[in-house]
Design brief:
single chain, about 120 residues, 7 helices
């Protein structure tokens, strides 16, 4: 069994664990974005810097500008990643991209009303 198949099987066999993980991730993103003082402090801790101006800039650029409220990947982003990989590994051109991303777990959070409860979507 390939690693790809075993990972997909593991995710599908542990749907409740994945659901809890995604909920915690979305809640963490929301907390980080709505509590800038805390987030800047943590950024400083992990980057080992006390430069407040730099940390606040990183917060605005990375946390607010880069991290999505809901961790999703668009089809064109996957296609671009495969194009990039194909430059180094030609087998990526023939790979089924749907095998590498499944929006169903995030869609389930929306269906359950979890995202709406956090004022997302």
């Amino acid at each position: 069994m390939s690693l790809q198949i075993s990972v997909i099987t593991a995710v599908k066999n542990r749907a409740a664990t994945l659901n809890r993980f995604l909920k915690a991730t979305v809640e963490g993103i929301k907390y980080a974005k709505t509590n800038p003082d805390f987030t800047v402090k943590i950024l400083g801790q992990y980057t080992r810097t006390e430069d407040k101006k730099l940390l606040e800039s990183a917060f605005r650029s990375y946390v607010l500008g880069y991290i999505r409220d809901v961790p999703t990947v668009a089809a064109d982003e996957i296609a671009n990643a495969f194009d990039d990989i194909a430059a180094r590994n030609p087998r990526a051109k023939s790979a089924d991209q749907r095998m590498f991303y499944d929006p169903a777990p995030i869609d389930q959070l929306a269906k359950e009303g979890f995202l709406k409860q956090l004022n997302l979507r």
